[in-house]
Amino acid sequence: AFFGSSAFRITSPAGISVMCDPWRNFPTRRWDWYFRDFPRVPVDIGVSTHAHFDHDALHRLDAHVLIDRLIGTYTFGDVTIKGIADKHETDSSSAIYDFKKIILDFDGIDITPPNNPRSWDHCLIVIETGGLRIVDWGDNRHNPPDEVWDMLGKIDIALLPIDSSRHVMGWHQVQHIIDRLKPHVVVPHHYYIYDVVQRMSTLQTADAWVEEQEGAVWLDGPTKTYTPESVAKLDRVVHYFGPHVAFDTEVWRTAEEE
Length: 258
What we know:
Elements: E1 8-11, E2 17-20, E3 41-48, E4 61-68, E5 72-76, E6 79-87, H1 99-107, E7 121-129, E8 132-136, H2 146-152, E9 157-161, H3 171-181, E10 185-189, H4 207-211, E11 217-218, H5 228-231, E12 237-240, H6 249-254
Parallel strand pairs: 2-3, 3-4, 8-9, 9-10, 10-12, 11-12
Antiparallel strand pairs: 1-2, 5-6, 6-7, 7-8
């Protein structure tokens, strides 16, 4: 189930639910990406890939277990979650706004690995359940070292950051990840949704990229069920949630402040 931005809820055959990367607005409130903070959602396990506001709102979840920047393995029931330590993407040369240059010029901070600030460290999250291996790429760099690719192994479904502003990475970098992983299914995230994400985020939709992908499927709702059998014959097929999210956006936007 897609919850906008980079948030996905994955539910196992046994009914265990995992929410990846719930979002919030930047704490200073000087510029809001979202109309509101993440909706209150009940979930068994919450996971965050890195300490950026659009990925780390674990406190917004009504959860049993919270896992922040996992390195190692967590197993419960029929779900195994593996965290692989790496780095956030810092090559912003394809982006409309060169965030690396902006951060350096205005804040005096060099985000280039390996001596980057901690918030630019990143954990790739691999969720194994129901015979499927799903990678939440988050905002990880497109070119991790070989040992990271080896740890990722065979991936069935890849959740990748894709939008027309190239905010996280350029489309050629996305293609590099797809070519390296060779997943059955590619699911875009981290893009603009008109009634969830505000225009000041500078994000755009992923429509243009999806339109270029042969055999891409525009999903007609915010949820999709996968089994090993249903993906076995698919080869890097794009499944795009588009504007669909798994909560009532009107109720969310108009509710009284908590």
